[in-house]
Each structure stands twice: as structure tokens, then as C-alpha cells.
Write a structure and sequence with these properties.
The complex is a heterodimer of chains A (624) and B (180). In chain A, the strands form 3 sheets. A 6-stranded mixed sheet of chain A has the order 5-11-10-14-12-13. A 4-stranded mixed sheet of chain A has the order 2-1-3-4, with helices on one face. Chain A folds into 6 domains: 55 residues, no CATH class; 96 residues, Glutaredoxin (3-Layer(aba) Sandwich), CATH 3.40.30; 234 residues, Rossmann fold, CATH 3.40.50; 72 residues, Ubiquitin-like (UB roll), CATH 3.10.20; 85 residues, NADH-ubiquinone oxidoreductase 51kDa subunit, iron-sulphur binding domain (de novo design (two linked rop proteins)); 28 residues, no CATH class. Chain A is of the alpha/beta class and 624 residues long. In chain A, strand 7, helix 15 and strand 8 form a beta-alpha-beta unit. By secondary structure, chain B is α/β, with parallel strands linked by helices. Chain B is built from 7 helices and 7 strands, in the order E-H-H-E-E-E-H-E-H-H-E-E-H-H. Chain B has a single domain, classed as NADH:ubiquinone oxidoreductase-like, 20kDa subunit (Rossmann fold, 3-Layer(aba) Sandwich), CATH 3.40.50.700. Chains A and B meet through helix 26 of A and helix 3, helix 5 and strand 6 of B.
């Protein structure tokens, strides 16, 4: 039994196989392992790793300061992270955190003196349809209420090991409320890859004719996949991560790329608050996701796939490894897939708490064991991605769709949806509704229809596509979810008439302030300035001057930020000003600019130090 | 001849470097005086703005109660108010004390400092009280324009003033605001 406060045993690197210890690409995964074992990464561990890997210590420290779930300071034996999405907040997480801290006699963000427990907030953990939620030692606990909090506090105080806690605490439900043609009847494991192999379509591009017969790329191309690529084109499948890039073009670019080995990365860093479809897909349809990656490997000539999973989904590790193993046993993965000489295998890698790692170039850096900071997108990852090799990066749902397309054909898939958005889409519905969960609809469904189905007809507003998406009011409920209109990750957070939309704006502003990676000034400062102005309005010090400033900063971020995070981190501000003007107007007590702080109170410290209290020692509020 | 543009200037928690830079427009000062008339300014030592003016230029951030009074006077009397230079825009060098408490700063200077006699924190009512933090101007009043630089070059000041007098919205070209 380890204790978080004890000095780490000197040989803690024993956890790590020797061959991995010298590989800087494994750095993040190793740090996660150490964090889990010791509930922090001791300075000594950082130093030894740096030495063994032959990298500067600051590179290790750089990761510790970048990823929220890695900490250089000892955390409690029980580390509790409360999810702080707006949906958690709406259902009372603030009161629950206060109760927890009181019951455990610990301050938020600190470790109790005896080293037993620490309590923190974290960004959305992807349990929005069953919140408020928290992670206890990186395992999700859902449906928190006062009773559950009190029981957890008792268990911690009695030092009961986590494995002896009631299993019902850790139940994560999939809650699929509506399925349509794609997920109503899942594809049998192997059907998609079998169809792809049978379809054949070997063709050797001109550049590949020079390759040696033993070269893996030549080998893959000769095995075919061209016909499956055609089906992907016919389906007109677009990426499900939000940006909607055409999957066929992406796969073909990698297939045609001459340089290096080719890689298939699956992005399961589902960090957009309110989004939890990847969690459900990987729980209930993991086979379809892995099969999609395998088909992609077949098409683009890759032998290695990596599933990058957010730290919040660590609890799925065993389940996913089991699925991978059963696929290996069924010859659907590994060497010689289905008796052919096609090789493809998939490994799992984890993030450590960074929203930005959902951005493909940031995710690639993270998988390479670095800080997840996005780079400029030329060259594109399809030309220079993971390890500077041609790389497909697709969302979990995109790969699942690829399996369906391979098994049933592109035309079948394209039959559903709208002109520019074919197929169906999983929508994550949370907030004020009777039936939160996952809904599958053909693209083009109206917001109104979703609200009707989930029981939320009295909604005053909906956040579509997460905080970086679009905020709509009742007048826009006839808009449809598709690439022609409301794009995004298929996330609908619903706000009932009783909610103060200003709280929504504030939650999003603080979220972006926390998650900005800090690389570029427009985003690093912009997100902080937006949050400061929102706080100013909260204090009743806002004026039209400040509202104008919010618009200016938003415009600047939109045009100047380095990546999509900063460019979209202002949407909630500009859209709430436009669509919910009352929440801003109600907080404006003045038409003239006033400071965000009390001038007279700013002299309090000096008054105390000098003992003065004359009229010059005070600042009266200025008359307008 | 058209009526002259009335201008007021002052330095709050600044070093007068921005004012030096204004003087650095050299012989163009004579051209400037053809078209502007200075109200309150360290240049003429007028202590208070006597009438509403068109333009106020302020260098320096806000570190004490007196700065606040002066800033309020400028905002009240100036149609257009400009934060000139690093300190006015961000708090600048004086705001480096913001990472310490006021107590730590004053004790370092007046109690623990080398060679201090009669060590105590000054409490004379004639000395303006310090704010707990040094603030940029726009934290306290609305600022219409920000003229960056430490100090803004004479050419930047000249460009800004002439554009404004010509009735244009002054937006400094790249060559006047890059510093490397």
C-alpha cells in the first residue's frame, strides 16, 4: 500500500519496462502510470526519467505543468475531481463540493494534512447525462447527490479501499434513447473488414512501383482497398469530430503519400463539454470503431493504429483491451488478418487532462509524448503527422461509420441525411430535459424535433456543439443540425426557463480561460480578458463600454488566434450578446464606465499601514 | 484660421519619458503650436484643466489616490482621452510591485532599507495614499485610444496627433509600432 505523503520508494521506475524508459515518445504514458501509482510525479521520478531518456528535465516538468491530471505535488490517497461542466453546475455540483469539503475537512484544491484526500474541480468528464459527476482516483462516479457525497466522505474517512466501495457508485449508463439505421443493428465483428477485403481493388500508384516487394506500403496497396475507398467516397462521409472534412479525401491523401510509414489515429479525446457519444460508442460499439480503424489501415496502407483516449475514460481501459484481444483471437487484428497477409494492430494511449488535445495536431504531439500544443496545419497531418509520417486522424464516430459503409455500401449510407451531410449522427443530449442521453438521427433533424423527443419543449436556449459551438434561443429551434446549418460535434445542452443564461456564459468563459494552451497571445490573453469582463458584469460593474470591449476582443480572437480553440472560444460571448441581450442588460447598472473594483477599498491596505483616516485617505465614487 | 485644438497632458505613475518623446518631435513643435493650444500640462505648469479640452494625453499608470483624482479630472474635461506609453496602457514598470503586498513594498523601502533612519512608513496627510495595486488607466476610466511604446517614438506621437487633427481615426502603421 502506497501512501501519497511518504517518500516514494527509490525504485519507482520499476513500474516501467526498461525498453520504454529510454523512449521519449512514451514519456506522457509513463508519467500517467507514475501519477496513478503515487498520486503525483515526484521530482526524483522526473529527474530519473529525464536522465534515462536523455532529455532535459524541463521537458518532463513541461508535461507536468501542461496536463491537468499530472501533478508534481503529492495528492491525497483519494483524489477526487468534480466535473464542472455547466450541466453539473445546474444540478447542484457547487453545493455537493462544499458538502464534500466540509465532511472531509479539506479545502478545495488542497491535500488534507494527513495526505488522505484532495478535492479538485476539473473540466467536463463526459457524464453530462448522468451528472453531477466526479472522478475518484480517476474512476467516474455518477449521479451524485447529498446522500452519495456523505457516503463517499465516510468511505474516505474510514479509509476503505476503492475496490470495496459499492459498485453502483461507478455505474456509467449508455442511455441510448433513439437509434436509427446505423446503430439500430450493429455490424457483426469482421463483416466490415471482410467486405473490404472481398471488394479488393488492388492498384499500384505510379510512385509505388519503385518500392521493394517487401515494403509494407507496396504490400498494402497490392492487397487492395481501392474499392473500399470508392465506397467511402460514394458515402460522402464527413468527419464526425466537428470540422466535417471529407473522409474519402483524407484517406486517399494518406494512401497516396509516399513518405514513411503510415498511421491511423483515432481521436477519443472527447473534451468538448456536453459531449459523450465517444464514451457510448466505445462502450457499446467498440468493435465497430476498431474495425473502422482496421479498414482504414487496409485502405491507406498502415500497420499501426492508435486510439487516443482522454484520461477521464481511463475506466474503459480494461474493457477496450478485452475487445482488442478478442479481435486478435478472431484474426480481425494483428498479423495476418482473416488469413490474408494483411497486418494491422491497435494500441491504446491516454491523455492526461487537456481539452486542446482534441485538436488533431495537438493530439499528435501528445501521442509523441509532448505538450499538446497545436502547430500550424501546413504540412497537413495526412502528409506529416505522427512521427512526421502520413497520418489519418479521425473521430471515433467516423471510424464506426466507415465500418458500416464498408459492410453496407456507400450508397446505402448516403441514402440518409441531407445533401451535404450524409448518414446519421449521434447527438448527446443533456441539461434540462426528461430523457438525457444519446439520440441517433439522420443529419438535418431540427432542434425542435430533438427537444420534443427528449422532453424539453419549455427550453429557453440550447448550446449546440459545445461551448465552442452555437448558442440558440427559441426563435431558432427550427434550425437543423447538419453541415449546411448548425455544425458541431452533435452536442445539445438544454437550458430550461428557470436557468440564468449568464451562468452558462460564465461557465464557458472560465472553461476556455483554463483550457487555452497559452501558445498564442490572442487566445491566452483573450480568454482571460473575456473571463474578467464576464466577472465584471457579474459584480454589476458592466457598462455598454465593456460590452463593446467584449465584442472587440472576440473579433480579435476570431481572426488572430493560432488555432480553432481561440477562434471559437468567443462564440458564447458574441452569441449571448446577440441572442440573450437581457442577461447583459440586466446587469448594467450604469451607462458610464465604472471600474471593476472598489477604488476606496484599494486604499484600505495603505490606510491600515499609515493609520490615516482623513478625507484625503478616501476615494469617493465619482459622480457621473 | 480655425480655432486651435485644445490639448492637456500629464504624467501619473510614469517617468516623463513619454513627454520627453513629445519634445523629441523637435522643430515640428513649432508647427504643432500653430494648431494646438496646451491647457494643463507639465510643459506650461498649469495645475488644473481650466475648460473642456479636445484631447488629453496621459502617460503613466495609476498608483495612488492623487493619480485617481487627476485621471477623473482628465476624463471629465477631455473629449478624447489617450493612454500614452507602456505604463498608461498596462501599468508598466511601476506595476512590478503588484506581485508583492503594499506592506512588503513599504517596509522594504522605509523600514528595512539600508541606511534608513527613524524607520517608519510615512503617514503625512500631504502624501497621497498608495493603491494596493498599480493599475492601467483603462481599469479606472474609459480610454479612447492607446498609443503604445516605451516611450512611443516622436514620429509615432507626431503621426497620431496629425492624423487626429486631420479628422482621421489614428491607426499606427507597422513601422511605428514594432520594436525589434
Amino acid at each position: 500500500m502506497y501512501s501519497a505523503t511518504a517518500t516514494p520508494v527509490p525504485d519507482f521506475l520499476d513500474l516501467i519496462p526498461p525498453e520504454r524508459r529510454s523512449d521519449p515518445h512514451a514519456l506522457l504514458q509513463i508519467l500517467i502510470q507514475i501519477q496513478h501509482a503515487y498520486h503525483h510525479v515526484p521530482q526524483e521520478a522526473a529527474k530519473r526519467l529525464a536522465a534515462e531518456m536523455g532529455i532535459p528535465l524541463v521537458r518532463v516538468q513541461g508535461l507536468l505543468s501542461f496536463y491537468s491530471f499530472l501533478s508534481p505535488q503529492p495528492q491525497g490517497e483519494y483524489v477526487i475531481h468534480f466535473s464542472d461542466n455547466i450541466t453539473d453546475q445546474m444540478f447542484g455540483n457547487r453545493e455537493l463540493v462544499a458538502l464534500m469539503c466540509q465532511r472531509l475537512d479539506v479545502n478545495l484544491g488542497e491535500t488534507r494534512k494527513d495526505g488522505r484526500v484532495s478535492v479538485h474541480f476539473t473540466s467536463c468528464t463526459g457524464m453530462c447525462d448522468q451528472g453531477p459527476a466526479a472522478l475518484v482516483n480517476y474512476l467516474p462516479v455518477t449521479n451524485l447527490d447529498r446522500e452519495r457525497i456523505e457516503r463517499i466522505a465516510d468511505l474516505v474517512n474510514a479509509q476503505i479501499p476503492l475496490k470495496d466501495w459499492p459498485a453502483e457508485f461507478f455505474v456509467v449508463k449508455s442511455q441510448i434513447r433513439r437509434s436509427d439505421v446505423v446503430f439500430r443493428k450493429p455490424i457483426e465483428p469482421g463483416a466490415g473488414i471482410r467486405a473490404s477485403l472481398e471488394r479488393g481493388g488492388a492498384f499500384l500508384p505510379e510512385w509505388a512501383e519503385d518500392l521493394a516487394p517487401s515494403d509494407a506500403r507496396r504490400h498494402h496497396l497490392e492487397r487492395g482497398g481501392a474499392e473500399t475507398l470508392k465506397e467511402i467516397y460514394h458515402s460522402d462521409l464527413r468527419g464526425r469530430g466537428g470540422a466535417g472534412f471529407k473522409t474519402g479525401i483524407k484517406w486517399e491523401s494518406v494512401r497516396d503519400a509516399k513518405a514513411g510509414d503510415h498511421y491511423v489515429l483515432c481521436n477519443a479525446d472527447e473534451g468538448e463539454p456536453g459531449t459523450f457519444k465517444d464514451r457510448v460508442l466505445l462502450t457499446d460499439y467498440a468493435d465497430m470503431v476498431f474495425e473502422g480503424m482496421t479498414i482504414c489501415g487496409h485502405v491507406v496502407g498502415s500497420k499501426i493504429g492508435i486510439l487516443y483516449l482522454r484520461q477521464e475514460y481511463w475506466y474503459m481501459k480494461e474493457h477496450l483491451e478485452n475487445v482488442l484481444n478478442s479481435r486478435r483471437e478472431a484474426a480481425l487484428l494483428g498479423k495476418g488478418i482473416l488469413g490474408t497477409d494483411l497486418d494491422f494492430d491497435i494500441e491504446l494511449q491516454f491523455g492526461a487532462g487537456a481539452y486542446i488535445c482534441g485538436m488533431e495536431t495537438a493530439m499528435i504531439k501528445s501521442i509523441e509524448g509532448r505538450r499538446g500544443i497545436p502547430r500550424r496545419r501546413w504540412p497537413l497531418p495526412v502528409h506529416q503527422g505522427y512521427l512526421r509520417c502520413p497520418t489519418v486522424v479521425n473521430n471515433v464516430e467516423t471510424f464506426a461509420a466507415a465500418t458500416v459503409i464498408s459492410a453496407k455500401g456507400g450508397a446505402w449510407f448516403a441514402h440518409n441525411g441531407t445533401g451535404q451531410s450524409t448518414g446519421t449522427k449521434l447527438f448527446c443530449v443533456s441539461g434540462d430535459c426528461e430523457r438525457p442521453g444519446i439520440y441517433e438521427y439522420p443529419w438535418g433533424v431540427s432542434v425542435h424535433e430533438v427537444l420534443r423527443d427528449c422532453g424539453a419543449l419549455d427550453a429557453q436556449g440550447v448550446q449546440v456543439g459545445g461551448p465552442s459551438g452555437t448558442m440558440i434561443n427559441t426563435q431558432e429551434f427550427d434550425r437543423s443540425a447538419c453541415f449546411e446549418d448548425l455544425v458541431g460535434t452533435g452536442t445539445l445542452m438544454i437550458f430550461g426557463p428557470q436557468r440564468d443564461m449568464f451562468e452558462v456564459v460564465k461557465n464557458f468563459a472560465l472553461f476556455f480561460q483554463h483550457e487555452s494552451c497559452g501558445l498564442c497571445t490572442p487566445c491566452r490573453l483573450g480568454t482571460t480578458l473575456l473571463a474578467n469582463y464576464v466577472r465584471k458584469f457579474e459584480q454589476g460593474c458592466g457598462s455598454p463600454v465593456d460590452l463593446e470591449e467584449l465584442r472587440n476582443i472576440s473579433g480579435l480572437m476570431k481572426t488572430m488566434a493560432h488555432c480553432g480553440l481561440g477562434q471559437t472560444a468567443n462564440h458564447h460571448i458574441t452569441e449571448s450578446i446577440e441572442k440573450f441581450p437581457a442577461i447583459w442588460a440586466n446587469r448594467m447598472k450604469t451607462t458610464e464606465f465604472v471600474p471593476a473594483f472598489d477604488l476606496d477599498r484599494a486604499l484600505e491596505e495603505a490606510r491600515g499601514l499609515t493609520g490615516r483616516n482623513d478625507s484625503e485617505a478616501h476615494l469617493a465614487p465619482v459622480e457621473a | 484660421m480655425a480655432e486651435k485644438l485644445k490639448v492637456a497632458t500629464c504624467s501619473l505613475a510614469g517617468c516623463f519619458g513619454c513627454h520627453m518623446s513629445l519634445l523629441d518631435i523637435d522643430e515640428r513643435l513649432l508647427d504643432l503650436l500653430e494648431v494646438v493650444e496646451f491647457d494643463r500640462s507639465p510643459i506650461n505648469d498649469i495645475k488644473h484643466i481650466s475648460q473642456p479640452v479636445d484631447l488629453g494625453l496621459i502617460e503613466g499608470g495609476v498608483c495612488n489616490a492623487e493619480n485617481v483624482h487627476v485621471l477623473h479630472e482628465f476624463r471629465k474635461m477631455c473629449k478624447i482621452l489617450v493612454a500614452v506609453g507602456e505604463c498608461g496602457i498596462t501599468g508598466g514598470l511601476p506595476s512590478m510591485r503588484n506581485s508583492f503586498t503594499l506592506k512588503e513594498c513599504l517596509e522594504e523601502a522605509f523600514v528595512r532599507g539600508v541606511g534608513t533612519e527613524n524607520a517608519h512608513i510615512p503617514d503625512d496627510p500631504e502624501i497621497p495614499l498608495l493603491l494596493d495595486k498599480v493599475r492601467p488607466l483603462h481599469h479606472i476610466v474609459k480610454i479612447d485610444y492607446f498609443l503604445p511604446g516605451c516611450p512611443p517614438s516622436a514620429d509615432a506621437l507626431w503621426y497620431f496627433l496629425t492624423e487626429l487633427m486631420a479628422g482621421n481615426d489614428p491607426s499606427l502603421p507597422q513601422e511605428l509600432i514594432h520594436f525589434d
